[in-house]
Amino acid sequence: MKLLVTIDLKEKYMEMIRDAFPEILTVKALDPARQVEEIIDTDFLVTGFKPDLELFKKGERLQVIQTWSAGVDKYMEEEVLQHLKARGIKLISMSGIHGDPIAEHVMGLIINYSRRLYDFYEAQKERKWLRLDVGQLAGKTMVIVGTGSIGREIARRAKAFRMRTIGVKRNIEGKIDYIDELYSNAQLEIALKQGDYIVIALPLTEETRGFIGRKEFAVMKETAFFVNIARGEVVDEGALIEALKEGRIAGAALDVFTEEPLSPDSPFYDLENVYITPHISAAHPDYNLKAVRLFIENLKSYLENREIKNLVDYNRGY
User: Fold this and answer.
1) What is the pLDDT of residue 254?
2) How far is CA 240 from the centre of its chain?
3) Given 66, 266, 271, 306, which is the most exposed site by the fewest CB atoms within 10 A?
4) Domain residue spans of the chain
């Protein structure tokens, strides 16, 4: 058996994989030409968030693809998806290792907004002693649209600040820890009307593309602060820009965009009520260590016919 790695993992992580699977030939190939040579007899592939369909087609023995990202929306594009399904190739995501850093990122943005820390820092640079009205998170309502592992970690931290939490998800059966009230996708507007802080944590699927648009922004409070750490395509960006410009919502913090990198002439840069970060909410120093550990666990599960964590359901799209 053979494992091909096409992402630039440090040698210490490659050694972890080789030590875990001494019976498997493990090869790292970053050069596209070498990847084409190596893929022919590869059984297992570790690769990035962007699928290389032409490379996949050359993998005559390919059984499993492990992508190094939680989101697999690029793999759900029709031609790629049909190939994976037709060949019976299993796709595994990195879902589950992002909850802590993303939740910290979200709470940092919200605290910054509520306590106006950025405004005070700007005043500091101008040597101004400026006392401004500030907010408080305790008693405020956070609406979390998407209550998977990331949404739950955000809710956990919101409860530590004594916030009320509302979750929105497809299936509302059962209780979710740290969520006070749960609404279905069909009840989205009811939930949004109550939100002081609205956090989008949905996977991108055909169902969720454009999930938040003009109708949804219209029902939000004028004081609402909107946060997107999911995918840019989940939100109608034109409708969001209108809502921000016209004061239909108070502000937004955006880590993801429909086109990335964000163009220098994007209107988002001109809006004073927007915080922009360059799709880094999931980044943390131990990302590759956690990812390698999860991959090793999953490949062992696959080889031993046990349940695989984060096995992508091609019908659901994640």
Assistant:
1) 98
2) 19
3) 306
4) 2-96+285-303, 99-276
The architecture of the domain spanning 2-96+285-303 is 3-Layer(aba) Sandwich (3.40)
Choosing from 105, 152, 164, 231, the catalytic residue is: 231
The top-level CATH class assigned to 99-276 is alpha beta
316 catalytically annotated = no
Q: Which residues of 3-28 are buried (b: 16+ CB within 10 A; e: fewer)?
A: bbbbbebeeebeebbeebbeebebbb
Tell me the per-residue pLDDT of 45-75, one tens digit each, with 9 for 90 and over: 999 999 999 999 999 999 999 999 999 999 9
Quick one: which H or E segment has residue 3?
A: strand 2-5
Extract the tokens encoding 101: 């850093």
- Active-site annotation holder among 116, 156, 209, 279: 279
pLDDT in tens, 197-245: 999 999 999 999 999 999 999 999 999 999 999 999 999 999 999 999 9
What is the C-alpha to C-alpha distance for residues 106 and 163, in angstroms, rounded to an integer?
14
Exactly one of 87, 214, 260, 316 is catalytic; name it: 260
**104 an active-site residue?**
no
